[in-house]
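SEQUENCE-TO-STRUCTURE ENTRY
===========================
Question of interest: how does this chain fold, as expressed in backbone structure tokens?
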Amino acid sequence: MPKRVVLTMLGLFVAASLLAVVALGGLWLATRILEAPGRPDCSAAEEAFAENLGKDPMVNRAPAGLEKVWADYAEPCESLAASDWYGGAETAWGYSAGNRPSVEEIVRFYRELAVQQGWRMERGAGEVERADQMGIWIQTMDNTTLSFSLHADRLEGRDVYWARITYDGIGTQR
């Protein structure tokens, strides 16, 4: 093979490699620019804390007639929301046609469960016309203040109730 062809091929390979490196660097930079500011660093212990919240009865139990549609947990460095750095666990509970429990039944179930699990009401609970009138419930776990809330919404075309435990920042014991 002539020397000129080898040098041309080598030059093309080097140029393509440099373009790939620049493209990857640009992609990394773009993701850092587009993510919400203030992303915290998380340890393995923080990940384990968030995973354990995903197993908590407040997001894993529901009244009869509701079925789990979606569930997730995240530590603050991953976040449950695109614009805020908070950790926690959440589950969307849906119901089949003709099997919709009343809002009163759902709220009563979660209020009773919250009391059984050691949560205390912080604010909110008015007359029960909507699920979000259950109020905000607070509990401290591993020196981290947790907040539980319930609200109605839509997910993938169906009505759901979101059971959500959240916390801001990173606990001091992890």
